């Protein structure tokens, strides 16, 4: 995998745009997933994920081929997502959802498309609820929790993605986990 | 909550699997007796399990195409680089002002197939067609040897031309001052090698009368 990725990136660095399409196909799902978990909205997730790839493309020369590509890419994506959250009005996702944006979660989109059997509806509701709980976390804890428990990344990788010392990452995971525990207890 | 600050830390260490075997045993023994720590540990485990049960999903359809459409148009130098990458046959209109030997794609093909050029001047190597081109207006001063490729001359060569395992294409005689020799058999090649070896080292008997009156 690593060798293939390195070869593809070397091509991209030479200016081969088609190679970049191959690179995207390898990472788009993960980048989109991280963006969605950070933002909780399919449109914004797509926006941020696409922007992340565009930036990766234009800055590919600054990517050090000896480092892990996914770390570099996820860093761009999480930074963009955190920026996006900061720019939003503080209570945007609570108040403005009433105004017709409530159908923008991944699950509401699925359930809007088809009639689902009861057990799957329950599944979707459960999934929707998990995302809501993630969204309740402050962004800095949210990022750490997503990378750790949804992407299953090591503390070292997370520390590189978030540009924070490992100890700080640990603290954020602990605090995020604790905040979720308190909410989920009820 | 945990029964003490200390045990709070232990819970995290336990969950993060950062305990030594001994610490783990001691802490497990504590949990058996302490409801508070036990409850918190259980809740945290449940929390993690719930978060991890969040499903993964794919990027929307057309995602890659969408981004590809937005990529910056390639600059001229970029397009040129791309062209060079897609058409590696034009290695370069390489300029060499010393006697040289070029062997192409040495890394990828066996010795038999690489094009070897020996001469002094400017030329182009078209690797796909296997042709060495002396472009119009260019001049090779002295002899030119091409091995494993054809030679196409639009410019000028002042010396002799030897083509080994190749052909001499498209040129009028005026453009070449010396002789043109094509060598396509192994024995011919060997003969050529031997002959040139001798003519360089010793004065080969047959040739010595016609030219070469060195010193
Ligand atoms: Zn205790």
What does this structure look like?
The complex is a heterodimer of chains A (186) and B (215). Chain A has a domain at 1-87: Rna Polymerase Sigma Factor, Chain: A (Orthogonal Bundle), CATH 1.10.1740.10. The termini of chain A are far apart. Chain A is built from 10 helices and no strands. With 186 residues, chain A is mostly helical. In chain A, helix 2 (17-39) runs antiparallel to helix 3, helix 2 (17-39) packs across helix 4 (69-87) and helix 9 packs across helix 10. Chain B has helices spanning 5-15, 21-33, 35-52, 63-70, 76-86, 186-201, 205-208, and strands spanning 95-103, 116-122, 124-126, 131-134, 139-140, 144-147, 150-153, 156-157, 161-164, 168-169, 180-183. Among the domains of chain B are: 5-52, no CATH class; 116-181, no CATH class. Residues 87-111 and 200-215 of chain B have low confidence and may be disordered. Chain B starts with a helix and ends in a 7-residue tail after the last helix. Chain B is α/β, with parallel strands linked by helices and 215 residues long. Chain B contains 7 helices and 11 strands. The complex binds zinc ion. Residues 2-3, 7, 30, 34, 36-37 of chain B line the site of zinc ion. Chain A: Keywords: DNA-binding, Sigma factor, Transcription, Transcription regulation.
Write a short abstract of this structure.
The complex is a heterodimer of chains A (186) and B (215). With 186 residues, chain A is mainly alpha-helical.
Q: What ranges of chain B have pLDDT less than 50 throughout 5 or more consecutive residues?
A: 87-111, 200-215
Can you identify the CATH class of the domain at 1-87 in chain A? Mainly Alpha
Q: What class, by secondary structure content of chain A?
A: mainly alpha
- Overall mean pLDDT of chain B stands at 71
Strand order of the largest sheet of chain B: 1-2-6-9-11
Instruction: Give the CATH H-level superfamily of the domain at 1-87 in chain A.
Output: RNA polymerase sigma factor, region 2, helix turn helix motif
Distance between the termini of chain A: 43 Å
Sum up the overall morphology of chain A in one term: globular
Family (chain B): Belongs to the zinc-associated anti-sigma factor (ZAS) superfamily. Anti-sigma-W factor family.
Domain Putative zinc-finger (chain B): 9-38
Protein name (chain B): Anti-sigma-W factor RsiW
Keywords (chain B): Membrane, Transmembrane, Transmembrane helix
